[in-house]
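Re: that backbone. Tokens:
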């Protein structure tokens, strides 16, 4: 257990898996086993592994892949050598393997799903506690109208009209009902004098990332900073490390621009 946590700690400190193997005097396969176990326990996410590689290293490989028209290791190695870039063979192999799995996009989708579910639950629970059966009437009129329209037209019957909210609806709800809903949020979101504005800006940013993930044909580019910003927001909102094993039940029970940067 101690060695698994040591590997995860080194990863979060900026060590690559190959560097961790050297630091711990174990094989790369052993390090990857440790890290996979820590992913399962929720200590780290899969994307933390791929983001442990220096951005300069990742950019060089992505350029090599583009120029080679292939992510085959031999072709990428040739392009890197031609560009005068030195790359550890083990790190190159591991990065290309992780790159093919699109692990960072999988984690990002999971975080967006958890954020939306949690915001939805917090708003509904807070309004029900304060207003009882009248909670639905407290929502902004336009939100109620649009949700009702979708509810009536949707072939899949939802449990309530509120289930038809979009992420933008949630942003509007938190803006309009900030005095009622802000006490339900972590202090990190409410301690500043302009907290309402800053929270709305975060939701606007996250919606832009969400559009890029959910609508890949638009060709919206997601920068590394977006991954980290969404991840930090999600952890602060939910108050714990997010895991891919989290379910809707566990979430609900918990007390743009063209380039997203």
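Recovered sequence:
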């Amino acid at each position: 257990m101690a060695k698994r946590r040591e590997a995860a700690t080194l990863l979060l400190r900026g060590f690559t898996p190959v560097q961790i193997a050297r630091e711990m005097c174990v094989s790369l396969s052993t390090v990857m086993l440790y890290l996979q176990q820590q992913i399962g326990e929720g200590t780290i996410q899969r994307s933390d592994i791929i983001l442990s590689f220096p951005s300069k290293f990742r950019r060089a490989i992505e350029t090599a892949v583009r120029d080679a028209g292939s992510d085959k290791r031999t072709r990428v190695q040739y392009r890197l050598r031609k560009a005068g870039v030195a790359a550890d063979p083990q790190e190159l192999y591991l990065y290309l393997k992780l790159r093919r799995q699109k692990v960072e996009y999988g984690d990002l989708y999971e975080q967006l799903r958890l954020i939306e579910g949690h915001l939805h639950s917090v708003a509904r629970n807070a309004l029900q506690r304060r207003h009882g059966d009248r909670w639905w009437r407290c929502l902004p009129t336009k939100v109620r109208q649009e949700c009702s329209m979708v509810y009536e037209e949707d072939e899949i019957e939802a449990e309530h009209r509120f289930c038809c909210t979009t992420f933008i609806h949630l942003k509007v709800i938190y803006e309009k009902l900030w005095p009622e809903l802000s006490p339900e949020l972590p202090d990190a979101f409410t301690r500043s004098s302009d907290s309402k504005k800053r929270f709305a800006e975060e939701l606007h940013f996250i919606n832009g990332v969400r559009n890029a993930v959910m609508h890949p044909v638009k060709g919206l580019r997601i920068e590394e900073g977006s991954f980290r910003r969404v991840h930090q927001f999600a952890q602060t909102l939910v108050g714990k490390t997010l895991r891919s094993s989290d379910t809707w039940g566990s979430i609900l029970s918990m007390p743009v621009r063209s380039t997203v940067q």
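The CA atoms of residues 28 and 236 lie 32 Å apart. The mean pLDDT is 81.
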